[in-house]
Amino acid sequence: MNEEIIDGTSGCKVRTGAQNEAALLALMEKTGYSMVQENGQRKFGGPPPGWEGPPPPRGCEVFVGKIPRDMYEDELVPVFERAGKIYEFRLMMEFSGENRGYAFVMYTTKEEAQLAIRILNNYEIRPGKFIGVCVSLDNCRLFIGAIPKEKKKEEILDEMKKVTEGVVDVIVYPSATDKTKNRGFAFVEYESHRAAAMARRKLIPGTFQLWGHTIQVDWADPEKEVDEETMQRVKVLYVRNLMISTTEETIKAEFNKFKPGAVERVKKLRDYAFVHFFNREDAVAAMSVMNGKCIDGASIEVTLAKPANKENSWRQHLNGQLSPNSENLLVYANKEEGHSKTLGKTPSLPARLNGQHSPGPPEVERCTYPFFPGTKLTPISMYSLKSSHFNSAVTHLDYYCNKNNWAPPEYYLYSTTSQDGKVLLVYKIVIPAIANGSQSYFMPDKLCTTLEDAKELAAQFTLLHLDREHNLFSLDLWRRIWRK
């Protein structure tokens, strides 16, 4: 006879192992799906009974978080079947037999996945327990850094095929200053997320070399998804691989050759530009004609620009996923040469929040002056300076607390482990002076791979919320905080 245990904290009945097994067997018998547990996950289906043909395309999978640890497929599957037919349900499992609090659900169509997000995100799956559902980033692309700059695309592709399996393509960008060289990195596209994950595990930074160089390996930024309806309205082209010396006037003249007067304006930033058209039809036609053309000796690439989600732009920027530019447009990442150094400037480092590279903003001008022997130095406190002397959000937060005669902010560090075994970090910040108010602490909803990023992100998050409540900071101050 199976006994049920009562959880003293929630009052819910906790099932025994035998009861769990019986419930799962009943689910399998009812649905005809198979179930297998391997590599820390339990797979239900994949494919379902009677399935013929290839698996569903990308965009059919959703990520489910905040699942109660004692909830399993017999309860979860019926909930997610409300949105459509499940191709595969993957529940992440602990050695203890509990789930790890998250799962992946793959539907047979993209429409079903989108419906699941609409009807099940923030769904109360148990009294007081709300799950989160969002699109799963099925990333198939790796970022490979520290590649010798003289290597051509064909050489990099051949080498990656030798050392990893499932390579589909390699994306290599020419240097902004010397088109005969690459930028010291490449994006490697794999046939599946699993193939990319296996390759990433093999190419462990510090232990694997290509052409005698220790390479850098990480997940590439996933491509930003923009719905088809929005893309049908875009009339701006993204033009890359331009020469640094090419002017906006030259670009406008070249694109106007296709149809005089069609271009409204051009905005160029370093070696790429946005070309705005008066009519979408002209933009689409110009894209077809101009892609691959030479301007000032450089073969350009032309695509439709991807509009940013304005509602999420501040949140995306806070999470290190979006770099500001004058057009507020999303484009594929342009990773500049991270090791190049210019006199009088500090190289801009790509943000690495949440373990991913993000395109960095333009280089920050740093004024330096010679320090002559005998120069008199006066000791001062940082609190005697103006806020315009700070760029770090951590320093701004400390400065603000001191200015208001508050105790310094308290930082509490937490960690967890990602799906691929990476240690992820997040700080919780407590402002003692306001801890008894409406908000007792501040914690961002993104995790970082480095301590410095985690602390800076937490400080940015706290400043943003303080500003919303008290309108503390000027736009110029926010620009200095975010430009890192």
TrEMBL record:
Record keywords: Chloroplast included?
no
Name the Pfam families on file: DND1_DSRM (PF14709), RRM_1 (PF00076)
- What region holds the RRM domain? 60-138, 140-222, 235-307
GO terms (molecular function) for this protein are: RNA binding
Q: Which GO terms describe its cellular component?
A: cytoplasm; nucleus
What ranges does the record give for the region Disordered, renumbered to this chain?
341-360
Has the keyword Electron transport been applied to this entry?
A: no
Domain of life according to the entry: Eukaryota
InterPro entries referenced in this protein's UniProt entry, alphabetically: HnRNP_R/Q_splicing_fac, Nucleotide-bd_a/b_plait_sf, RBD_domain_sf, RBM46_DSR, RBM46_RRM1, RBM46_RRM2, RBM46_RRM3, RRM_dom
Give the UniProt subcellular location, in the record's own words: Cytoplasm
Database matches in PROSITE patterns: RRM (PS50102)
Fill in the subunit field for this protein. Interacts with YTHDC2, MEIOC, MOV10, CNOT6L, DDX4, UPF1 and PABPC1.
The protein's job, in short, is: Essential for male and female fertility, playing a crucial role in regulating germ cell development by ensuring the proper progression of meiosis prophase I. Regulates mitotic-to-meiotic transition in spermatogenesis by forming a complex with MEIOC and YTHDC2 which recognizes and down-regulates mitotic transcripts for a successful meiotic entry. Required for normal synaptonemal complex formation during meiosis, binding meiotic cohesin subunit mRNAs containing GCCUAU/GUUCGA motifs in their 3'UTRs regions and positively regulating their translation.
- Which protein are we looking at? Probable RNA-binding protein 46
Origin organism is Jaculus jaculus (Lesser Egyptian jerboa)
Query: Gene for this protein?
Result: Rbm46
